[in-house]
Structure prediction request, 557 residues.
Amino acid sequence: MQKQLIECVPNFSEGCNPDIIKRITNEIEKIEGVKLLDADPGKATNRTVVTFVGEPGAVIEAAFQAIKKASELIDMSKHKGEHPRMGATDVCPLIPISGITMEETVAYAKKLGKRVGEELNIPVYLYESAAQKEDRKNLATIRAGEYEGFADKIKDPNWAPDYGQAVFNERSGATVIGARDFLVAYNVNLNTTSTRRANSVAFDLRENGRVKELNGKKVLDENGVEIREPGLLKSVKAIGWYIEEYGIAQISMNLTNINITPLHIAFDTAVERAHARGMRVTGSELVGLTPLKCFLDAGKYFLQKQKRSVGVSEQELIKIAVKSMGLDELAPFDPKKKIIEYVLQEEQSNSLIKMQLDAFANETASESAAPGGGSISAYVASLGASLGTMVANLSSHKKGWDDQWETFSVWAEQGQHLKDELLKLVDEDTNAFNKIMSAFSLPKNTDEEKAQRTLAIQEATKYATEIPLLTMKKGFACFPLIKEMVKIGNPNSVTDAAVGALCIRTAIYGAYLNVKINASGLKDKVLSAQFIDEANDILEKAKAEETEILRLTEEKI
Prediction:
Protein backbone atom coordinates (compact mmCIF):
# COMPACT_ATOMS: atom_id res chain seq x y z
CA MET A 1 0.00 0.00 0.00
CA GLN A 2 1.30 3.46 -0.90
CA LYS A 3 2.47 5.50 2.08
CA GLN A 4 0.21 8.45 2.91
CA LEU A 5 2.04 11.79 2.79
CA ILE A 6 0.79 15.27 3.51
CA GLU A 7 2.60 18.59 3.46
CA CYS A 8 2.06 21.31 6.06
CA VAL A 9 2.97 24.96 5.41
CA PRO A 10 2.33 26.98 8.58
CA ASN A 11 3.02 30.73 8.49
CA PHE A 12 4.30 32.13 11.79
CA SER A 13 4.19 35.85 12.63
CA GLU A 14 7.89 36.13 13.34
CA GLY A 15 10.54 36.79 10.71
CA CYS A 16 13.20 38.82 12.52
CA ASN A 17 14.30 36.75 15.51
CA PRO A 18 16.14 33.60 14.37
CA ASP A 19 16.13 32.18 17.89
CA ILE A 20 12.33 32.19 18.09
CA ILE A 21 12.04 30.68 14.61
CA LYS A 22 14.51 27.92 15.52
CA ARG A 23 12.67 27.11 18.74
CA ILE A 24 9.44 26.70 16.76
CA THR A 25 11.01 24.50 14.04
CA ASN A 26 12.74 22.44 16.75
CA GLU A 27 9.27 21.31 17.86
CA ILE A 28 8.61 20.05 14.34
CA GLU A 29 11.91 18.21 14.05
CA LYS A 30 11.31 16.40 17.34
CA ILE A 31 8.42 14.44 15.86
CA GLU A 32 9.35 11.10 14.33
CA GLY A 33 7.99 10.56 10.82
CA VAL A 34 8.21 14.24 9.85
CA LYS A 35 10.85 15.95 7.73
CA LEU A 36 11.42 19.71 7.87
CA LEU A 37 12.01 20.87 4.31
CA ASP A 38 12.28 24.65 4.60
CA ALA A 39 11.95 27.67 6.89
CA ASP A 40 11.84 30.92 4.93
CA PRO A 41 11.83 34.08 7.11
CA GLY A 42 11.01 37.57 5.82
CA LYS A 43 12.08 40.61 7.83
CA ALA A 44 9.85 43.13 6.09
CA THR A 45 6.79 40.91 6.51
CA ASN A 46 7.97 39.75 9.97
CA ARG A 47 6.73 36.33 8.96
CA THR A 48 8.25 32.87 8.44
CA VAL A 49 6.86 30.25 6.07
CA VAL A 50 7.75 26.74 7.23
CA THR A 51 7.36 23.60 5.10
CA PHE A 52 7.41 20.05 6.41
CA VAL A 53 6.14 16.70 5.16
CA GLY A 54 5.32 13.32 6.63
CA GLU A 55 2.64 10.80 7.45
CA PRO A 56 -0.65 12.43 8.50
CA GLY A 57 -0.66 11.58 12.21
CA ALA A 58 2.91 12.75 12.67
CA VAL A 59 2.31 15.93 10.66
CA ILE A 60 -0.65 17.12 12.72
CA GLU A 61 1.23 16.33 15.93
CA ALA A 62 4.19 18.40 14.69
CA ALA A 63 1.84 21.18 13.60
CA PHE A 64 0.16 21.26 17.01
CA GLN A 65 3.46 21.42 18.88
CA ALA A 66 4.70 24.21 16.59
CA ILE A 67 1.47 26.19 17.04
CA LYS A 68 1.73 25.70 20.78
CA LYS A 69 5.34 26.91 20.87
CA ALA A 70 4.48 29.92 18.69
CA SER A 71 1.69 30.85 21.11
CA GLU A 72 4.24 30.85 23.92
CA LEU A 73 6.91 32.86 22.09
CA ILE A 74 5.01 35.35 19.89
CA ASP A 75 3.03 38.22 21.38
CA MET A 76 0.69 39.52 18.69
CA SER A 77 -0.08 42.68 20.67
CA LYS A 78 3.47 43.82 19.87
CA HIS A 79 3.66 42.46 16.29
CA LYS A 80 4.29 44.69 13.28
CA GLY A 81 4.71 43.53 9.69
CA GLU A 82 3.75 44.30 6.10
CA HIS A 83 1.96 40.99 5.43
CA PRO A 84 -1.71 40.60 6.42
CA ARG A 85 -1.97 38.52 9.61
CA MET A 86 -4.32 37.71 12.47
CA GLY A 87 -2.41 35.30 14.69
CA ALA A 88 0.91 34.03 16.01
CA THR A 89 0.34 31.05 13.75
CA ASP A 90 -1.52 32.93 11.06
CA VAL A 91 -2.42 30.12 8.71
CA CYS A 92 -1.73 26.38 8.69
CA PRO A 93 -2.75 24.52 5.51
CA LEU A 94 -2.48 20.75 5.03
CA ILE A 95 -1.83 19.55 1.47
CA PRO A 96 -2.29 15.96 0.23
CA ILE A 97 0.88 14.76 -1.50
CA SER A 98 0.51 11.02 -2.14
CA GLY A 99 -1.65 8.08 -1.09
CA ILE A 100 -4.31 10.29 0.51
CA THR A 101 -7.46 12.02 -0.70
CA MET A 102 -8.52 15.60 -0.08
CA GLU A 103 -11.45 14.33 2.01
CA GLU A 104 -9.06 12.42 4.27
CA THR A 105 -6.81 15.48 4.53
CA VAL A 106 -9.81 17.63 5.53
CA ALA A 107 -10.51 15.20 8.38
CA TYR A 108 -6.96 15.70 9.67
CA ALA A 109 -7.31 19.49 9.37
CA LYS A 110 -10.45 19.36 11.49
CA LYS A 111 -8.76 17.12 14.04
CA LEU A 112 -5.88 19.59 14.32
CA GLY A 113 -8.23 22.58 14.50
CA LYS A 114 -10.30 21.00 17.28
CA ARG A 115 -7.22 20.28 19.38
CA VAL A 116 -5.78 23.78 18.92
CA GLY A 117 -9.10 25.38 19.85
CA GLU A 118 -9.72 23.22 22.89
CA GLU A 119 -6.23 22.78 24.33
CA LEU A 120 -4.62 26.12 23.47
CA ASN A 121 -7.69 28.38 23.71
CA ILE A 122 -6.92 29.83 20.29
CA PRO A 123 -9.94 30.61 18.06
CA VAL A 124 -9.65 28.47 14.92
CA TYR A 125 -11.26 29.07 11.53
CA LEU A 126 -11.37 26.41 8.81
CA TYR A 127 -10.73 27.47 5.21
CA GLU A 128 -10.39 26.20 1.63
CA SER A 129 -11.55 22.55 1.30
CA ALA A 130 -12.04 22.25 5.08
CA ALA A 131 -14.34 25.30 5.28
CA GLN A 132 -17.70 24.58 6.91
CA LYS A 133 -19.19 27.84 5.60
CA GLU A 134 -18.99 29.07 2.02
CA ASP A 135 -17.81 32.56 3.01
CA ARG A 136 -14.86 31.05 4.87
CA LYS A 137 -13.29 29.27 1.93
CA ASN A 138 -11.23 32.35 1.06
CA LEU A 139 -8.39 33.11 3.47
CA ALA A 140 -8.51 36.84 2.69
CA THR A 141 -12.16 37.00 3.78
CA ILE A 142 -11.42 35.37 7.13
CA ARG A 143 -8.38 37.57 7.70
CA ALA A 144 -10.11 40.84 6.76
CA GLY A 145 -9.55 43.39 9.52
CA GLU A 146 -6.45 41.49 10.61
CA TYR A 147 -5.34 41.15 14.23
CA GLU A 148 -6.20 44.75 15.10
CA GLY A 149 -9.83 44.32 14.07
CA PHE A 150 -10.30 40.82 15.45
CA ALA A 151 -11.35 41.82 18.98
CA ASP A 152 -14.56 43.31 17.54
CA LYS A 153 -14.97 40.82 14.69
CA ILE A 154 -15.12 37.77 16.94
CA LYS A 155 -18.09 39.27 18.82
CA ASP A 156 -20.16 39.05 15.63
CA PRO A 157 -22.14 35.75 15.76
CA ASN A 158 -21.41 35.32 12.04
CA TRP A 159 -17.71 35.15 12.90
CA ALA A 160 -17.82 32.72 15.79
CA PRO A 161 -14.82 30.38 15.35
CA ASP A 162 -15.20 26.81 14.11
CA TYR A 163 -13.24 25.62 17.14
CA GLY A 164 -12.42 27.31 20.43
CA GLN A 165 -14.34 29.98 22.27
CA ALA A 166 -15.54 33.24 20.72
CA VAL A 167 -13.15 35.15 22.94
CA PHE A 168 -10.33 37.40 21.74
CA ASN A 169 -6.93 35.89 22.56
CA GLU A 170 -4.83 39.04 22.84
CA ARG A 171 -1.48 37.25 22.82
CA SER A 172 -2.00 34.63 20.09
CA GLY A 173 -4.81 36.10 18.00
CA ALA A 174 -6.57 33.51 15.84
CA THR A 175 -5.38 30.74 13.56
CA VAL A 176 -6.75 29.62 10.19
CA ILE A 177 -6.38 25.90 9.51
CA GLY A 178 -7.46 24.09 6.37
CA ALA A 179 -6.77 21.72 3.53
CA ARG A 180 -5.91 22.81 0.03
CA ASP A 181 -4.44 21.44 -3.14
CA PHE A 182 -0.73 21.55 -3.77
CA LEU A 183 0.44 24.84 -5.24
CA VAL A 184 3.16 24.63 -7.87
CA ALA A 185 5.19 27.78 -8.49
CA TYR A 186 6.23 27.52 -12.12
CA ASN A 187 8.00 29.97 -14.45
CA VAL A 188 8.15 29.68 -18.24
CA ASN A 189 11.12 31.30 -20.01
CA LEU A 190 10.62 33.44 -23.12
CA ASN A 191 13.01 34.65 -25.82
CA THR A 192 12.16 38.27 -25.03
CA THR A 193 13.06 40.94 -22.51
CA SER A 194 9.64 42.60 -22.72
CA THR A 195 7.52 42.39 -19.56
CA ARG A 196 4.57 43.74 -21.54
CA ARG A 197 4.74 40.89 -24.04
CA ALA A 198 5.23 38.31 -21.30
CA ASN A 199 2.14 39.74 -19.60
CA SER A 200 0.13 39.38 -22.80
CA VAL A 201 0.77 35.63 -22.68
CA ALA A 202 0.15 35.49 -18.93
CA PHE A 203 -3.27 37.12 -19.42
CA ASP A 204 -4.07 34.56 -22.13
CA LEU A 205 -3.31 31.76 -19.68
CA ARG A 206 -4.56 32.78 -16.23
CA GLU A 207 -8.07 31.90 -15.19
CA ASN A 208 -8.86 35.52 -14.35
CA GLY A 209 -7.93 36.53 -17.89
CA ARG A 210 -8.01 40.22 -18.78
CA VAL A 211 -10.45 43.10 -18.89
CA LYS A 212 -12.35 43.12 -22.17
CA GLU A 213 -11.61 46.09 -24.44
CA LEU A 214 -13.26 47.51 -27.53
CA ASN A 215 -11.48 50.14 -29.64
CA GLY A 216 -8.97 50.62 -26.83
CA LYS A 217 -11.63 51.21 -24.17
CA LYS A 218 -12.66 48.95 -21.31
CA VAL A 219 -16.04 47.28 -21.74
CA LEU A 220 -18.40 47.70 -18.78
CA ASP A 221 -21.61 45.87 -17.90
CA GLU A 222 -24.93 47.57 -17.11
CA ASN A 223 -23.74 48.23 -13.57
CA GLY A 224 -20.51 49.84 -14.69
CA VAL A 225 -18.40 46.85 -13.69
CA GLU A 226 -15.54 45.83 -15.97
CA ILE A 227 -16.25 42.74 -18.06
CA ARG A 228 -13.46 40.20 -18.06
CA GLU A 229 -12.42 37.74 -20.76
CA PRO A 230 -11.45 34.52 -18.95
CA GLY A 231 -8.10 32.91 -19.66
CA LEU A 232 -7.49 29.42 -20.99
CA LEU A 233 -6.33 27.66 -17.82
CA LYS A 234 -8.46 26.97 -14.77
CA SER A 235 -6.83 27.19 -11.32
CA VAL A 236 -3.91 29.19 -12.70
CA LYS A 237 -2.65 32.61 -11.64
CA ALA A 238 -0.07 34.23 -13.92
CA ILE A 239 1.88 37.40 -14.51
CA GLY A 240 4.75 38.44 -16.76
CA TRP A 241 8.02 39.82 -15.40
CA TYR A 242 11.63 40.48 -16.34
CA ILE A 243 14.38 38.61 -14.48
CA GLU A 244 17.58 40.64 -14.54
CA GLU A 245 19.64 37.69 -13.27
CA TYR A 246 18.73 35.66 -16.37
CA GLY A 247 18.29 38.56 -18.81
CA ILE A 248 14.91 37.24 -19.98
CA ALA A 249 11.22 37.73 -19.38
CA GLN A 250 9.19 34.94 -17.82
CA ILE A 251 5.58 33.97 -17.37
CA SER A 252 5.30 33.36 -13.64
CA MET A 253 2.48 30.98 -12.77
CA ASN A 254 0.92 29.55 -9.64
CA LEU A 255 -0.84 26.28 -10.43
CA THR A 256 -3.31 26.07 -7.56
CA ASN A 257 -4.82 22.72 -8.54
CA ILE A 258 -2.56 20.41 -10.53
CA ASN A 259 -5.43 17.95 -10.99
CA ILE A 260 -7.33 20.58 -12.99
CA THR A 261 -4.36 22.12 -14.82
CA PRO A 262 -1.29 19.88 -14.61
CA LEU A 263 2.23 21.10 -15.22
CA HIS A 264 2.54 19.79 -18.78
CA ILE A 265 -0.71 21.43 -19.90
CA ALA A 266 0.40 24.77 -18.46
CA PHE A 267 3.69 24.45 -20.35
CA ASP A 268 2.19 23.39 -23.68
CA THR A 269 -0.49 26.09 -23.57
CA ALA A 270 2.20 28.69 -22.82
CA VAL A 271 4.15 27.43 -25.83
CA GLU A 272 1.11 27.77 -28.08
CA ARG A 273 0.19 31.27 -26.90
CA ALA A 274 3.78 32.54 -26.98
CA HIS A 275 4.12 31.30 -30.56
CA ALA A 276 0.86 32.99 -31.51
CA ARG A 277 2.30 36.27 -30.22
CA GLY A 278 5.62 35.91 -32.05
CA MET A 279 7.69 34.52 -29.19
CA ARG A 280 9.30 31.21 -28.32
CA VAL A 281 9.39 29.34 -25.04
CA THR A 282 13.01 28.36 -24.41
CA GLY A 283 12.54 26.42 -21.18
CA SER A 284 11.03 26.66 -17.72
CA GLU A 285 11.82 26.39 -14.02
CA LEU A 286 10.15 25.09 -10.89
CA VAL A 287 10.31 27.05 -7.65
CA GLY A 288 10.40 24.79 -4.62
CA LEU A 289 9.43 21.13 -4.42
CA THR A 290 6.97 19.34 -6.68
CA PRO A 291 5.13 15.99 -6.34
CA LEU A 292 6.47 13.05 -8.35
CA LYS A 293 3.07 12.69 -10.05
CA CYS A 294 3.67 15.94 -11.98
CA PHE A 295 6.73 14.46 -13.67
CA LEU A 296 5.29 11.02 -14.33
CA ASP A 297 2.15 12.50 -15.87
CA ALA A 298 4.23 14.92 -17.95
CA GLY A 299 6.57 12.19 -19.14
CA LYS A 300 3.65 10.05 -20.29
CA TYR A 301 1.97 13.05 -21.93
CA PHE A 302 4.99 13.91 -24.07
CA LEU A 303 5.64 10.26 -24.98
CA GLN A 304 2.02 9.88 -26.08
CA LYS A 305 2.37 12.98 -28.28
CA GLN A 306 5.28 11.19 -29.96
CA LYS A 307 3.13 8.02 -30.26
CA ARG A 308 5.62 6.15 -28.12
CA SER A 309 5.06 3.63 -25.34
CA VAL A 310 4.59 5.09 -21.86
CA GLY A 311 5.61 1.78 -20.30
CA VAL A 312 9.11 2.95 -19.39
CA SER A 313 10.83 3.34 -16.04
CA GLU A 314 10.11 6.10 -13.56
CA GLN A 315 13.56 7.56 -14.19
CA GLU A 316 12.95 7.67 -17.95
CA LEU A 317 9.60 9.40 -17.50
CA ILE A 318 11.24 12.07 -15.34
CA LYS A 319 14.01 12.54 -17.91
CA ILE A 320 11.46 12.98 -20.72
CA ALA A 321 9.51 15.51 -18.62
CA VAL A 322 12.61 17.54 -17.75
CA LYS A 323 13.87 17.66 -21.34
CA SER A 324 10.44 18.32 -22.87
CA MET A 325 9.78 21.33 -20.64
CA GLY A 326 13.37 22.55 -20.56
CA LEU A 327 13.49 22.43 -16.77
CA ASP A 328 17.28 22.32 -16.89
CA GLU A 329 17.74 25.41 -19.08
CA LEU A 330 18.67 27.88 -16.33
CA ALA A 331 20.26 25.46 -13.87
CA PRO A 332 20.93 21.72 -13.56
CA PHE A 333 17.82 19.80 -12.53
CA ASP A 334 18.36 17.26 -9.74
CA PRO A 335 15.25 15.11 -9.14
CA LYS A 336 16.56 14.16 -5.67
CA LYS A 337 16.35 17.82 -4.65
CA LYS A 338 13.22 18.89 -6.53
CA ILE A 339 10.77 15.98 -6.15
CA ILE A 340 9.06 15.77 -2.76
CA GLU A 341 8.97 11.98 -2.53
CA TYR A 342 12.69 11.76 -3.40
CA VAL A 343 13.63 14.38 -0.80
CA LEU A 344 11.80 12.29 1.79
CA GLN A 345 13.44 9.02 0.82
CA GLU A 346 15.98 7.83 3.32
CA GLU A 347 19.07 6.25 1.86
CA GLN A 348 18.96 2.55 2.67
CA SER A 349 22.52 1.32 2.68
CA ASN A 350 21.27 -2.27 2.93
CA SER A 351 18.77 -2.06 0.07
CA LEU A 352 19.31 -5.03 -2.23
CA ILE A 353 17.70 -3.46 -5.29
CA LYS A 354 20.13 -0.54 -5.13
CA MET A 355 23.11 -2.88 -5.46
CA GLN A 356 25.14 -3.56 -8.59
CA LEU A 357 24.50 -7.01 -10.04
CA ASP A 358 27.84 -8.40 -8.91
CA ALA A 359 27.41 -6.98 -5.40
CA PHE A 360 23.94 -8.53 -5.18
CA ALA A 361 25.29 -11.90 -6.27
CA ASN A 362 28.18 -11.65 -3.80
CA GLU A 363 25.83 -10.70 -0.96
CA THR A 364 23.60 -13.67 -1.78
CA ALA A 365 26.61 -16.00 -1.84
CA SER A 366 27.93 -14.77 1.53
CA GLU A 367 27.58 -16.53 4.88
CA SER A 368 24.52 -14.43 5.76
CA ALA A 369 21.14 -16.22 5.61
CA ALA A 370 19.59 -13.26 3.84
CA PRO A 371 19.01 -12.52 1.04
CA GLY A 372 17.81 -16.02 0.41
CA GLY A 373 15.42 -17.92 -1.80
CA GLY A 374 12.51 -15.56 -1.17
CA SER A 375 14.35 -12.42 -2.31
CA ILE A 376 15.85 -14.27 -5.28
CA SER A 377 12.39 -15.52 -6.29
CA ALA A 378 11.03 -11.97 -6.24
CA TYR A 379 14.01 -10.74 -8.27
CA VAL A 380 13.67 -13.51 -10.85
CA ALA A 381 9.96 -12.64 -11.17
CA SER A 382 10.87 -8.97 -11.73
CA LEU A 383 13.17 -10.08 -14.56
CA GLY A 384 10.32 -12.06 -16.09
CA ALA A 385 8.09 -8.98 -15.95
CA SER A 386 10.92 -6.91 -17.44
CA LEU A 387 11.28 -9.26 -20.42
CA GLY A 388 7.57 -9.12 -21.16
CA THR A 389 7.68 -5.32 -20.90
CA MET A 390 10.71 -5.17 -23.18
CA VAL A 391 8.86 -7.07 -25.91
CA ALA A 392 5.86 -4.73 -25.54
CA ASN A 393 8.10 -1.67 -25.90
CA LEU A 394 9.98 -3.10 -28.88
CA SER A 395 6.67 -3.93 -30.54
CA SER A 396 5.23 -0.46 -29.89
CA HIS A 397 7.69 1.19 -32.28
CA LYS A 398 8.29 -1.63 -34.73
CA LYS A 399 8.35 -0.26 -38.27
CA GLY A 400 5.01 -0.78 -39.97
CA TRP A 401 3.17 -1.32 -36.67
CA ASP A 402 2.48 2.36 -35.97
CA ASP A 403 -1.26 1.79 -35.69
CA GLN A 404 -0.69 -0.62 -32.78
CA TRP A 405 1.57 1.50 -30.56
CA GLU A 406 -1.19 2.29 -28.03
CA THR A 407 -2.04 -1.38 -27.52
CA PHE A 408 1.57 -2.26 -26.76
CA SER A 409 1.97 0.88 -24.62
CA VAL A 410 -0.86 -0.28 -22.35
CA TRP A 411 0.78 -3.69 -21.93
CA ALA A 412 4.18 -2.14 -21.29
CA GLU A 413 2.75 0.17 -18.62
CA GLN A 414 1.21 -2.80 -16.84
CA GLY A 415 4.54 -4.62 -17.04
CA GLN A 416 6.42 -1.68 -15.55
CA HIS A 417 4.00 -1.59 -12.62
CA LEU A 418 4.39 -5.32 -11.94
CA LYS A 419 8.16 -5.10 -12.24
CA ASP A 420 8.30 -2.28 -9.70
CA GLU A 421 6.03 -4.16 -7.27
CA LEU A 422 8.17 -7.28 -7.51
CA LEU A 423 11.37 -5.33 -6.95
CA LYS A 424 9.94 -3.99 -3.69
CA LEU A 425 9.38 -7.59 -2.59
CA VAL A 426 13.08 -8.35 -3.05
CA ASP A 427 13.88 -6.15 -0.07
CA GLU A 428 10.66 -6.94 1.76
CA ASP A 429 11.38 -10.66 1.86
CA THR A 430 14.70 -9.96 3.58
CA ASN A 431 12.94 -7.53 5.92
CA ALA A 432 10.48 -10.28 6.81
CA PHE A 433 13.36 -12.64 7.65
CA ASN A 434 14.92 -9.95 9.84
CA LYS A 435 11.62 -9.51 11.70
CA ILE A 436 11.73 -13.19 12.64
CA MET A 437 15.32 -12.90 13.85
CA SER A 438 14.42 -9.82 15.90
CA ALA A 439 11.47 -11.65 17.47
CA PHE A 440 13.68 -14.60 18.46
CA SER A 441 16.13 -12.19 20.11
CA LEU A 442 13.49 -10.79 22.50
CA PRO A 443 14.02 -11.51 26.23
CA LYS A 444 12.30 -14.54 27.79
CA ASN A 445 13.06 -14.25 31.47
CA THR A 446 9.50 -13.91 32.78
CA ASP A 447 6.22 -15.52 31.80
CA GLU A 448 5.03 -12.18 30.40
CA GLU A 449 8.21 -11.79 28.33
CA LYS A 450 7.88 -15.35 27.06
CA ALA A 451 4.28 -14.71 25.98
CA GLN A 452 5.24 -11.46 24.24
CA ARG A 453 8.17 -13.19 22.51
CA THR A 454 5.97 -16.07 21.31
CA LEU A 455 3.38 -13.63 19.97
CA ALA A 456 6.08 -11.60 18.18
CA ILE A 457 7.53 -14.74 16.61
CA GLN A 458 4.12 -15.83 15.34
CA GLU A 459 3.33 -12.39 13.90
CA ALA A 460 6.72 -12.26 12.18
CA THR A 461 6.27 -15.80 10.83
CA LYS A 462 2.84 -14.91 9.48
CA TYR A 463 4.32 -11.88 7.72
CA ALA A 464 7.20 -13.97 6.37
CA THR A 465 4.58 -16.30 4.86
CA GLU A 466 2.50 -13.49 3.37
CA ILE A 467 5.42 -11.92 1.49
CA PRO A 468 6.38 -14.95 -0.68
CA LEU A 469 2.67 -15.59 -1.24
CA LEU A 470 2.41 -12.03 -2.53
CA THR A 471 5.40 -12.71 -4.79
CA MET A 472 3.49 -15.69 -6.20
CA LYS A 473 0.41 -13.54 -6.84
CA LYS A 474 2.33 -10.67 -8.44
CA GLY A 475 4.36 -13.12 -10.49
CA PHE A 476 1.28 -14.93 -11.73
CA ALA A 477 -0.21 -11.57 -12.78
CA CYS A 478 2.65 -11.29 -15.31
CA PHE A 479 1.49 -14.27 -17.38
CA PRO A 480 -1.22 -12.41 -19.40
CA LEU A 481 1.39 -9.86 -20.52
CA ILE A 482 3.92 -12.51 -21.48
CA LYS A 483 1.38 -14.72 -23.25
CA GLU A 484 0.06 -11.78 -25.26
CA MET A 485 3.59 -10.76 -26.29
CA VAL A 486 4.22 -14.30 -27.54
CA LYS A 487 0.97 -14.14 -29.51
CA ILE A 488 1.09 -10.64 -31.00
CA GLY A 489 4.46 -9.14 -30.12
CA ASN A 490 7.50 -8.54 -32.31
CA PRO A 491 8.26 -11.96 -33.85
CA ASN A 492 11.99 -11.36 -33.41
CA SER A 493 11.51 -11.20 -29.64
CA VAL A 494 9.13 -14.08 -29.07
CA THR A 495 11.80 -16.15 -27.29
CA ASP A 496 12.53 -13.24 -24.95
CA ALA A 497 8.92 -13.37 -23.81
CA ALA A 498 9.21 -17.14 -23.39
CA VAL A 499 12.28 -16.73 -21.16
CA GLY A 500 10.13 -14.34 -19.14
CA ALA A 501 7.59 -17.13 -18.65
CA LEU A 502 10.35 -19.48 -17.46
CA CYS A 503 11.48 -16.83 -14.99
CA ILE A 504 7.97 -16.36 -13.64
CA ARG A 505 7.35 -20.10 -13.18
CA THR A 506 10.72 -20.47 -11.42
CA ALA A 507 9.96 -17.50 -9.19
CA ILE A 508 6.52 -18.84 -8.29
CA TYR A 509 7.93 -22.26 -7.44
CA GLY A 510 10.67 -20.70 -5.32
CA ALA A 511 8.22 -18.49 -3.46
CA TYR A 512 5.92 -21.51 -3.00
CA LEU A 513 8.68 -23.36 -1.16
CA ASN A 514 9.12 -20.35 1.13
CA VAL A 515 5.39 -20.22 1.84
CA LYS A 516 5.39 -23.89 2.82
CA ILE A 517 8.39 -23.75 5.15
CA ASN A 518 7.29 -20.53 6.84
CA ALA A 519 3.65 -21.61 7.18
CA SER A 520 4.82 -24.77 8.92
CA GLY A 521 6.06 -22.58 11.78
CA LEU A 522 2.60 -21.17 12.49
CA LYS A 523 0.79 -22.47 15.58
CA ASP A 524 -2.53 -21.60 13.94
CA LYS A 525 -2.80 -24.71 11.77
CA VAL A 526 -6.01 -23.56 10.08
CA LEU A 527 -4.26 -20.41 8.86
CA SER A 528 -1.20 -22.45 7.91
CA ALA A 529 -3.34 -24.77 5.78
CA GLN A 530 -5.04 -21.79 4.12
CA PHE A 531 -1.68 -20.34 3.11
CA ILE A 532 -0.45 -23.65 1.70
CA ASP A 533 -3.70 -24.37 -0.16
CA GLU A 534 -3.62 -20.96 -1.82
CA ALA A 535 0.05 -21.39 -2.75
CA ASN A 536 -0.63 -24.87 -4.21
CA ASP A 537 -3.43 -23.48 -6.35
CA ILE A 538 -1.24 -20.67 -7.77
CA LEU A 539 1.63 -23.09 -8.43
CA GLU A 540 -0.53 -25.53 -10.41
CA LYS A 541 -2.02 -22.71 -12.49
CA ALA A 542 1.48 -21.31 -13.10
CA LYS A 543 2.69 -24.66 -14.44
CA ALA A 544 -0.22 -24.75 -16.87
CA GLU A 545 0.43 -21.16 -18.01
CA GLU A 546 4.12 -21.87 -18.56
CA THR A 547 3.34 -25.00 -20.58
CA GLU A 548 0.87 -23.12 -22.79
CA ILE A 549 3.26 -20.19 -23.39
CA LEU A 550 6.11 -22.52 -24.33
CA ARG A 551 3.80 -24.40 -26.72
CA LEU A 552 2.85 -21.13 -28.40
CA THR A 553 6.51 -20.13 -28.59
CA GLU A 554 7.51 -23.38 -30.27
CA GLU A 555 4.78 -22.85 -32.85
CA LYS A 556 6.10 -19.34 -33.57
CA ILE A 557 9.70 -20.43 -34.09
User: Anything to note?
Assistant: The chain is about 50% helix and 15% strand.
